[in-house]
Amino acid sequence: MTDNWAVIPVKGLTESKTRLSTSLQGDQRRILVEALLEDVLSSIIRSRVYGTVMLISPDESVGSRFRSQEVSFLKQIGVGLNRAVEQANRLATQKHARSLTTVLADIPLVEAGDFKEISSLGDASQRVVMAPSLKGGTNVMLTSPPGVVSPSYGRWSYSKHLHQAQVRGVNAYSISNSRISFDIDSSSDLIELRRRDPEGRTASGRVISEFRVLLNDHGLSLSAIS
């Protein structure tokens, strides 16, 4: 399906996941971010749903690290997640893409079949398909055509996107999927990933297996095994 796009916004290999800075050092966060991206990209590519798979980031090292025959890179111009998605929507529209699926880069358990399910929901020419996070965000969102609703990422973005679709009369679909709804934001999420993927099936799970859980005066944290 060459006219269906998947776009993964990435803040940067070292700028991402700053909430984990009290638990992981810069190099450790970079390793984790790369593993998360590896997991997401692998599932997207294996789904064979998208003719274009694109990373967008202000950090050109993202392109240097992950650009391939199957993955392209777009240098982000504006600042923030919403600007990144708006830029991707404009390019997809210019290239006459049928749909654009925005995939956040921190959902390591997502599988190829999940993307097939999302792409198959609804047959209207104008539609939005969303997979919310456990925290009220929007971890995956298909818009057909691209930009049929404006990106409103941030607090409670799922309800904001759904409201937009309703106001604009766009068919909206939502899926409840425990793999997609689980994202990595905190040390407790890393511990939960280790619980869900103890055998290291994912690249992120293998990275987490190299960290040990420590209890200190500040609560849960992670440090590299020496």
Structure description:
- With 226 residues, this protein is α/β, with parallel strands linked by helices.
- Helices cover 37% and strands 22% of the residues.
- The protein is built from 8 helices and 9 strands.
- The strands form 2 sheets. Strands 3-2-1-4-6-5-7 form a 7-stranded mixed β-sheet, sandwiched between helices. Strands 8-9 form a two-stranded antiparallel sheet.
- Helix 1 links the parallel strand 1 and strand 2.
- Helix 1 packs across helix 4.
Oligomeric category: single chain
- Helix-strand pattern: EHEHEHEHEEHEHHHEE
List low-confidence stretches.
213-219
Q: Can you count the helices?
A: 8
How large a portion of the residues is in β-strands, by DSSP E? 15-25%
The residue fraction in helices comes out at 25-40%
The shape, in one word, is: globular
In short:
Helix content is 37%, strand content 22%. The chain has 226 residues and is an alpha/beta fold. Strands 3-2-1-4-6-5-7 form a seven-stranded mixed beta sheet, with helices on both faces. The protein has a two-stranded antiparallel ribbon with strand order 8-9.
